[in-house]
Structure formats: C-alpha cells, structure tokens
Amino acid sequence: MLKKILLAAAAVMSLSNIASAADMKEFRIGILGGENEADRLRNYACLADNLKKEFGFEKVSLFPAADYDGVIQGLLGGTLDFAELGASGYAATYLKDPKAVTPILTTQQKDGSTGYYSIGLARKDSGIKSIADAKGKTLGYADPDSTSGYLVPLTQIPKTTGVPNDQFFAKTQFNGGHENNLLAAYDGKVDIAVDDSSGIGDFKDGFTSGTFHKVVAKGSVDPNKLVEVWRSPLIPNGPLVVRTALGNEWQTKLADFFTKLPKTDAKCFAAVEGGDYVGYVPVKHEFYQAIIDVRKKAIGG
Q1: What CATH code would you report for 26-109+237-299?
Q2: Where are the bilayer-spanning segments (predicted)?
Q3: CA-to-CA distance for 193 and 211, rounded, in angstroms?
Q4: Sign of the dihedral through C-alpha 136, 141, 146, 149
Q5: Which pLDDT does position 274 carry in this prediction?
Q6: Residue 80 DSSP SS3
C-alpha cells in the first residue's frame, strides 16, 4: 500500500512539473564558458528575442557561466531549462543524474558530419611541429568539463606519446575556457593549447568552426603565427539539452523551434553557433555513450 501511495505521489509531482512548464513565464538558458561573457550575451540576445516571440515567454534569461560546471549544476539543480553542452559536459550531467536533462538535437556541418576534433595549437616560432616535440613543455587545457579541451586530449594524447600527460609534459594547467586557453598559447604562457575545431577548411581561417575559427574571425589571433601539432579522433558534437521535467511536449516544441531556426533567422543561428554549420539534426542519448564511458573511466562523474 505504501509503495502505491508513493508511486501515486510521484506521478502527481511529475504532472505538476509538466503543467507548470506549460504555463511558465520565464525560460532560462545556460551558456557555457568559452568566449568572453560580453560576446556570449551579444550572440544569444537574438535567440532570447526569438523564443519570446515564438512561445510568449515574458522573460528569457541568459546565464553565461564562468565555467562549464556552472551550467551543469544549473541543469542538475533545476535552475536552468536549456543549454547546449559539450559531449563531456553532457556525460558529467548524466553521470550525476541520468534523468536531469534530455538531449534533443546536435549541430551538423556542411559536409553532413556531426563531429569535430580536438586540435593542439602552438606558436610557429616555438619550434614545436608535433606532439613529440612538446616533451617537457607546458600543455594548456580549457575546462575540466570540456570534451575537446580536456577529456579527449587527456585520454588520447597518451596513445601517441606512450605515457600519461602529467608525465610527458613538464606542466599542465587549466586556463578558464577555450578562448583563454588558445590566447595563452598565442601569448606564450603555455606551449600548446588544445581547442575545439571542425578540422576542415583552411587553417588561415581557423578552419570552418570552433573557438580557433571564432578568434581568428574576431582578429584576436593571427593564424600565420600558429601551427597545428596534434589532432584527435572524431568527437561527437555536443547536444542541445532540455530539462527533462519540462516534459515531452516542450522537448518537441523546442526541437521544432531550433530545427527551423537556420531558416527563420539564419543570422541568429550563425551568431549562436558560429562557424560553418548548416543546422541541427535529432540526437539521442546513445550518441554519447562512448564519451560517457570514457569520462567515467578517466575522471569519474
């Protein structure tokens, strides 16, 4: 009898969450650290306007977290409704609470791929031409919850060097996001920075998407002063996730909204995603299972 009462109470609470979601007046978006805060807020402002227009929200709040964990904790705590995570960030969220968020879409490049790379960048005048040349040097990571900026280089560089990174490099350090990490290499504060990149297109453009592309487009770095010294296997593009408690109806509505965004507001889509993406495609949890397994083994939740 007690079990039935508890199950009934849980069902009522679940229905209550969905009902309140249907009537919600504020929609809360978490924005990962990567670029500086001013750029992130400016790029997402059009998205807030489009969401208010589409769904009648009185307010769409943008929360540009200082680091990836800020967004992850917001999703886990129910203080954020939506975010675009990296694969490792999604893995971290899932490992802490498998029911916290639901992946709905991921980005797709012009060549049809839904993956990208972690690349190692060094100053050309450093003399480093490959990861082998970097023994005893300093490696810069982006963020502990970044896929391309930490998890993948942590686990994949040793497959080339034969030893863990903390043994191969004299020092490894986090630099507070992808942009700061790349600038740290550019300014000579670290010898190599790992960065997210499509890995396709021209190096002089910073390739077609990723942080390298964004900082080149902004004029923050001269690509002629940098060289690629390492590249990972293909990584799955991160998911757009919705707080699961909002229910299936909102997941469907938001998936439809974002799928149409490249056509309804191409300029806004480009501002939010940056680089040479063509749109979003559906994605499910299983797409990230390999990353979840790697994260669980390498660094836990």
Answers
A1: 3.40.190.10
A2: none
A3: 11
A4: negative
A5: 86
A6: coil
Domain regions of the chain by residue span: 26-109+237-299, 115-235
Q: Tell me the pairing of strands 192-197 and 26-31.
A: unpaired
**Pick from 102, 103, 69: nearest CA to 299:** 69
Alpha carbons within 13 angstroms on the beta-carbon side of residue 69 total: 7
Region of 80 (left: φ > 0; alpha: ψ -120 to 50; beta: rest) is beta
Whether 26-109+237-299 and 115-235 share one fold: the answer is yes
CB-based contacts of 283, cutoff 8 Å, min separation 6: 103, 104, 105, 106, 114, 239
Q: How many angstroms separate the CA atoms of 16 and 246, rounded?
A: 10
Tokens 């998936």 identify what position?
255
Higher local confidence (pLDDT), 31 or 6: 31
**How many other C-beta atoms lie within 10 A of the C-beta of residue 153?**
28
Instruction: Calculate what percentage of the chain has a pLDDT beyond 90.
Output: 85
CATH classification code of 115-235: 3.40.190.10
Kindly state the helix (H) or strand (E) to which residue 26 belongs, with its residue range: strand 26-31
pTM above 0.90, yes or no: no
Q: What is the C-alpha separation between 268 and 59, in angstroms, rounded?
A: 18
**What's the rounded Cα separation, in Å, for the pair 72 and 78?**
10
